[in-house]
């Protein structure tokens, strides 16, 4: 039951992304840019890099919400100066 609720919440977040008119086909989710994400992928170990690439593909296929991608990426900030910099910049007043 809880899994069904989690899935429903995720679908609602994805729908809200769609309402904003995001074309995900060849983009990266905010607050990242192509450049920062490319640098981050170079900095991460292979397993983490594969996980990020998989989640990015899921985001592009509208299977993963933008907010979920950001939360996922935050866990790799200690391993990637580029990711850490993105989150420092977005949390600054």
Q: How would you describe this protein?
A:
It is a single chain. The protein is mainly alpha-helical and 93 residues long. Helices cover 68% and strands 0% of the residues. The chain is built from 5 helices and no strands. It is globular, with a radius of gyration of 14 Å. It starts with a helix and ends with a helix.
Q: Could you give a short description of this structure?
A:
The chain has helices spanning 2-19, 34-43, 46-60, 66-74, 81-91. It is mainly alpha-helical and 93 residues long.
What does the average pLDDT come to?
Answer: 83
Radius of gyration: 14 Å
Separation of the first and last Cα atoms:
40 Å
| Fraction of residues in β-strands | under 5%
Major sheet size, sense and barrel closure: none
Order of helices and strands: HHHHH
DSSP strand count: 0
3D shape: globular
Uncertain parts: none
Instruction: Compute the number of helices.
Output: 5
Helix % is 55-70%
Question: Which features does this protein show?
Answer:
93 residues, mainly alpha, 5 helices, 68% helix
Indicate the topology.
Blueprint lengths: L1 H18 L14 H10 L2 H15 L5 H9 L6 H11 L2
Helix pairs in contact: 2-3, 2-5, 3-4
